[in-house]
Amino acid sequence: MMKRIFSRKTAILMLVLTLVCTAISYGADGIAQSDLNTPYRAGYIEGYIKEIDSETITIERYEGGVYKILLPTTAALQIDGQQAKRIDFKPGMEVYAEIKGRSIQYMDSFSTQNLGYIKPGSKMRTGTIKFIDRNQITINTPMGKDETYYISPATVALKKGQNVPLSVLYIGDRVKLYFDNITTDIISRISIEGDSIKIEDLYKGKIVTVDELENAIFLENVKVLSEGKWEDIKGGLRISYSSDFPVYIEGYEIPANNLKYYKGKEIYAAIKDFFGEAKIERLVVKGAYETTYSDKIKDINWFSENLELANNRNIAFNDGTIIIKSNRIVDKYSLNSKSDGFFIANGKGKGLVADVIYIYNEDINNTNIGQNNIYAGRLDEIVEYSVKLKNPFLVSKHQWEGFEDAKELYYDNDTFIYDLEEDKLITSKEFYTKRYAVDEDSEYAKDRNLRDWYGYMYTDGDRISVIGVQEKLDSLLRQRMTIGTVESIIDNNLVGKEITIREAKDWSSRHEKWIPKEMSLKVNLNKAIIIKQDKLITYQDLEVGDSLYIIRDDYKGKVIIVKE
User: Which of left, alpha, beta for 74 (phi over 0: left; psi -120 to 50: alpha)?
Assistant: First the structure.
């Protein structure tokens, strides 16, 4: 009898050991891992190529550990920002790869093969932009270290493979910085991550179950933040997450693998789109009582980590607070007094703590790298490469401000000049030789009843990037500044070119803040100039999800700026 019992125990023990050993050995080749810190759960890997064959690639992470990962033919591959082939990747090269499931979806590298030799543009740093001050950029690296580098007139910025102005940079962008030699701090090239960095939605829901094997959380009673209020989503929701994503409760960070212990708790989750799949970027476990405010930050006490709203409410914040600005996750030091926002706080009485701070503020310029302005006014004098405005108006603090002194601006052959009356582009030569250039005081003009034209000008400093010209000046008093996100785009015989804007907010000069609208807003683009990356684009170039800064006369759009 004793022998039988011993044999059964031995068999069970051997079975357990076999399963454990199998799991460990299975994890050694990198195709599947029980370790919660694997790149499969993180969704990306950075390090050095050790081997590459027709189906897989073996990568040694910077932090240590070697992983053999499937590299399908459908993976997007780049080297130095250019499309590449599998054969172009060599052992010893440093790579960054994004993973979905058990396969690489995207991978890039730079061209140095001999790590002892630094070719121009070969030193690289990756990180998230934490601070921008004119020619200075501070990034937070994957190792959690803040590093500061500098831009010069020769620094090139790339996004989605296209050359873009440095003014498109935002705090919260994930970037790769390239340098011409190993000792310099001057950036030669900046590669900006695409739209996958953007926060798509903010959810609230109750945890039902946590699937640690598939890195997914199941929620019920789910709501999404829309137009400044919570809206119900029918049915439950399954959302993926990475094992190393931040989870907080009342300012304390907890490991993601401890989420299973919070079953039944409500959470707030900031969601981004990861290769077409919703994925949690940040998560906060909700406290006891929720209070929401839409207000302006009056003052910030950095010592006590408290902010005072315009309504005199005091709300604490901490490292766990989800702070969203320009649709990006930013840290607490990106908060500024006078910013408008939506605040979700928990607690009671005076002990309120912010779980979520959603900053509304958008401006013409993302940071002080940009020097863009919008002018409107009478084209009093047009000569070759120069325009003089009479009684010009300038957008200042989201409203038109008039000036008595004339303003001279400059254009060139690369300036986009658009005739809003004829709905067509014109050349710089046509601009100063044809009907747009009028001397009202001349007998010729008086005899023919010719009048000065008017224009909306988008400038970089005093250089005109885009100008839309028309015969009469609109009533600027009726116009308002609006920010929001493109919900739909149509073009039909009834209304022409029209967009619907969700999360729309109008600037109130009286209250000096952005005031959310309670419903979506429609804007007509038939007589508008649309600008993206300092260039004139058409309504067909707009995409659902684009963030816009709009100057409009009620339904009629006048100037539309696409924010990256």
Answer: alpha
Measured between alpha carbons, how far is 425 from 414 in angstroms, rounded to an integer?
Answer: 12
Is the model's pLDDT at 177 over the cut of 80? yes
The CATH topology of domain 198-285 is OB fold (Dihydrolipoamide Acetyltransferase, E2P) (2.40.50)
The whole-angstrom separation of Cα 67 and Cα 60 is 6
Q: Please state, in angstroms and rounded to a whole number, the distance separating the CA atoms of residues 287 and 318.
A: 14
Place of tokens 């969700």: 502
Taking domain 290-359, whether its CATH number is 2.40.50.320 is answered by: yes
- Contact partners, residue 320, CB within 8 Å, separation at least 6: 246, 248, 249, 250, 251, 252, 253, 284, 355
pTM score of the predicted model: 0.71
Output the CATH code of domain 476-563.
2.40.50
Across residues 64-88, what is the average pLDDT? 84
- Amino acid at position 195, single letter: D
Residue 364, pLDDT above cutoff 50: yes
Q: Report the distance separating Cα 221 and Cα 234, nearest Å.
A: 8
Cα-based distances in Å from 89 to 50, 74, 77, 112: 10, 16, 9, 10
Contact status, residue 286 vs residue 268, Cβ threshold 8 Å: yes
CA dist 356 and 320 (Å) reads 9
Q: What pLDDT, in 10s, does the model give residues 415-472?
A: 999 999 999 999 999 998 888 877 666 666 665 667 788 999 999 999 999 999 999 8
**Higher local confidence (pLDDT), 275 or 254:** 254
Quickly state the pLDDT bin for 536 (edges 50, 70, 90): very high
Q: Which CATH superfamily is domain 123-196 in?
A: Copper binding periplasmic protein CusF (2.40.50.320)
CA distance 194 to 172: 12
